[in-house]
Automatic annotation (TrEMBL):
Swiss-Prot/TrEMBL keywords: Iron, Metal-binding, Oxidoreductase
Catalytic activity: all-trans-zeaxanthin + 2 O2 = 4,9-dimethyldodeca-2,4,6,8,10-pentaenedial + 2 (3R)-hydroxy-beta-ionone
Family matches, as InterPro entries: Carotenoid_Oase
Class in the EC hierarchy, top level: oxidoreductase
Name of one Pfam family that matches: RPE65
PANTHER family named among the record's database cross-references: BETA-CAROTENE DIOXYGENASE, CAROTENOID 9,10(9',10')-CLEAVAGE DIOXYGENASE 1
Cofactors named for this entry: Fe(2+)
Renumbered residue ranges of the record's region Disordered: 1-20
Family: Belongs to the carotenoid oxygenase family.
UniProt protein name: carotenoid 9,10-dioxygenase
Chain ranges passing through the membrane: none
Its EC number(s): 1.14.99.n4
Amino acid sequence: MFMRKESAIGSAKRGSPSSRQLPDIRLAAFLVRVDVELRDPARRKKNKYLADNFAPVSAETTHQDLKVVGKLPKALDGVYARTGPNPVLPISGDYHWFDGDGMVHACRIKDGKVAYSNRLVQTNRLKRERKLGFSVYQRFGDMRGFWGVFHAGLGALRMKLGVTPQNEGVGTANTALVYHANKLLALHEGDLPYAMRVLCDGIVDTLGRITFGGKVKHPFTAHPKVDPITGELFFIGYQMDKKPPCVWYSGLDKDGQLQFDVKVDLKEGVMMHDMAITQDYAILLDVPLCFRPEVMVTHNRLPFVYDKSRPARFGFLPKRPKSGKEVVWLELPAVMIFHVANAWQESKDVVKLFACCFEDFDLDIGEEEMPDSAQPRMREMTFNLATGEATSRQLADVICDFPRVPEHLTGLRTRYAYAASMDTTKLAGNFEGIVKFDMSATNGGTVAGRLSHGTNRWGGEAVFVSASAAEDDGYLMTYVHDENRNKSELVVYDARTMSAVPVARVELPVRVPYGFHGAHITEAQLQQQVTAL
Ligand SMILES: [Fe+2]
């Protein structure tokens, strides 16, 4: 059933940028050398996002017929895949967790057997850097201090000179995976999607970057929403550097064709990582993590400031608008939101939104211990579009993020959500378990279950896979890393019981670095995939 194929990343066949000749390598090298030599030396230090289980792996491998402890249920037949950062070229400067090249770690499950493989997403960025032999693209982690401004200037120059061509995109596809229109999409909010194809043995190959025939001229969020009823996909893309700053809201039909693309102007550029849909609306999250590049110089910080004096604004658009001017904004006191659990309509005018919210925030994550208020907790927000009233309540005092609900309930009333719970005595790589929320509970009882991965065992987002029509009859899948043994596992839990004893676990022969978001691709979806763009 499974094939075997492996290669060290350093010896992988080098790709070639498709759309234009490689620019003069000496020019690229000169610009990078200037960049590195003028860097703030104080920041050249051991980076926690390159250490321990954040460290990249050095080979793409495939391993079959892995030992299963317990039993893999039939409902899991298909592929569990998760992407995350895995920097390939040596890091010459600073580095943030957001910066690494996307690598997909996939477990192919069929008839109780499992195979594991990992593959890099072959982005234009990665192909170009491999051809050059050194890292040349602007990194998020470099955007600090006076030299952050200088790096940004050099980055713009590199783009203008064609060293990093703008039309090829700059994304790493390291953030999330979504299946739509017979394609698995690897996503990064600074670029367009990369289409992937999952082979019969579970290897995930890159088909290429989706450009929508040049019609989409803005980035594509890592968290689009697939309408479970119509098969449409709705997405945003924010542009902080435009005047005025803006966010685009766009829709694809079930076949992946662009249906609309409207622009909503913003008062200030903000990081807008997620969005939500309901039956009739799309919800934009204008939360106050504001783009203020001056703080790179004045405070030696990344150029994003969490401004508590500003409200969180929630923009409601008709789901298929004719213009961005149709947006209606409602406000709540400031919160930062990276991830939405779900949203739905209680009635025509009343909308519920559940999301993990930070009451305080600092994007220089892990640089210093954050106060308790700067940790995310699940909140229920209720909006009345007829009266303009908005209210919010915290569900439970549980620090958590990366919430998931069953895919077939996106935008619809949902009772349960599953989030990765955190032990904040550890600064990074600290997802200690999974918490199950009962979003219907109004007076206590909102925590319907909670499990821990075990002592010094750390997980991440848990993807829910349904076993039947009953909402919580299903399984939670995640990679867990045992830091005592330096071993990674695929772990499957029963979502209904939330027992900490896994239904099945599979020790993987290689380490799976901590990463971001994943997806379960069903057996039927595997069969329906397109074979080329
Ligand atoms: Fe995310």
